[in-house]
Model the fold of this input.
Amino acid sequence: MAADVAVAQLAATVALNLSVAIVAGASMSTAWLRAGRSAWSAGCLGRLRLVALAAVTVAILCQIALLWLQAAAMAEVPVMAASPAVHAALTATHYGFAWTIGIGALAAIAAATALRRRPQQARTADIVALLGVAVFLYSRSIVSHAGAGGDVSWAVAADWLHLILISLWVGEVWVAGLVTLRRPADSPPAARADRDRYIQALSNTATVALAGIFVTGLASAWRGLGSLDNATGNDYAATLLIKLALVAIAALLGGINRFFVMPTLIGNAGGGTTIAQRRFALVLQIEAVVLLAALIFAAVLSSTSPPAAG
Done:
């Protein structure tokens, strides 16, 4: 039974992290596309709002499921009999405190995304969504390995920034590959110009995020391993190495798009632009699958005791 609960927790954690990342990616993409004046931009904005609503709904359901599963695991009772344990977990544990912050942040995102109507409301909604993502990720950091030293520490700050950057990168890749760039932009110059600005913003943000992920990832890895002697020979190190390999593959795919595909796409008004955009989207879709695998191993890593904690 314990193994079943652990598997369910892993699945819910991956779904939660991916959903929150998609909310972040949709909000960033919306901010970039709102300056556009083409029918392509308008169509993307409509789809992005629906995607954000669906993603935050999934995130809320996963957050609730995780509370129930965590309560069952802590009380060592069957999931269906965990109702009393849920109340205890909420009111008497640090996990419950962090969970309450997280669900509040998700509720604020859902309300802002659902209620926006006019352009000014849409801009406010995007700000609320991104702030909500940041608050939610903080609630995750303080119950992670980084939070062992308290809710306010350099370890929590590094882990929080790492989660923010990872969420932006994963979300932007998923949104671009599966929503905004899945279909080629219309042929009018305004549509191509909006698409080019969007792709440039996407690439620039991913590059900055990757640099930050590298730095914060090194800090987190060193905190977990404690020394180079622990870099092999334990489950934590093995899982970490697989995650790092997947991130490296995703970064390589991003580099292929930036340095080989983008030059044939940005500013291209010829007949090859449709083929180039499809190639760009295909690489993003492969990158999205690799990043999903990285999220899975990140979830496994979060539930694995690091050597430095021994």
About this structure: The two ends are 26 Å apart (CA to CA). The chain has a mean pLDDT of 91. Residues 200 and 266 are 8 Å apart (CA to CA).
